[in-house]
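Sequence in, structure out.
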Amino acid sequence: MRDPLVLLPGLMCDSHLFHEQITALSAEYAVMVAPVSGGERLEEIASSLLDQLPARFALAGHSVGGMVAMEILRRAPDRVTRLALIDTSPLAETPQAAADYEPAIIKLKSGRLEEAVQTLVPAEALAAGHHRQAVVVAQVEMALRVGEGAIIRQIRAMQRRRDYQSVLRRCRVPTLVLCGAEDALMPMKRHGFMAELIPYARLEVIEGAGHLAPLEQPEAVTMALRGWIEQPYVLQSRADA
């Protein structure tokens, strides 16, 4: 029996982000989705989740969920048996980038949620094509369910996040770094850099996907996650090769 798989949705997202992956994998693996809005700092969110999660688990996080995953790894590396980081970043936010979130927060506080969604994840951050509008609609629907208050907490946590490069260098579990080829928010180059930090990482770039890769190309993401789950625990790192 493999360890449970814990999925952490991204900014403004709920379990629908991983709907196709849950459907495909839950027949073979224990799968659970945990919310990432329980505080205004990643440390608070991770601490809250660790009180609720199984003793050991495989962990996959998207966007801010990936940042929470890195904080969980920092706090409890002995509990994380494998790690997947999807459309996310290990870097601390710059002061300018942190300030750039404030217009979206103002929109959220004034009840203009759909405008805030467009500010935070513009359509241009998604892959071009006939599926784009459906993904935009799904993002708005998820944001409505998550709610303005929770989204603001997520933004604050992103603004205040630490740099996780040293945490990833110490990571010793099978790791998948996955991104959409057309992700304009967390570009492919940053994911290549992130994969280079981790001794046992594999980089997968999903063609025809942007920032919401699990929704945009669900079959390709499911295949990548399945391959990651089935990787052996003992691997040869690049440094050992």
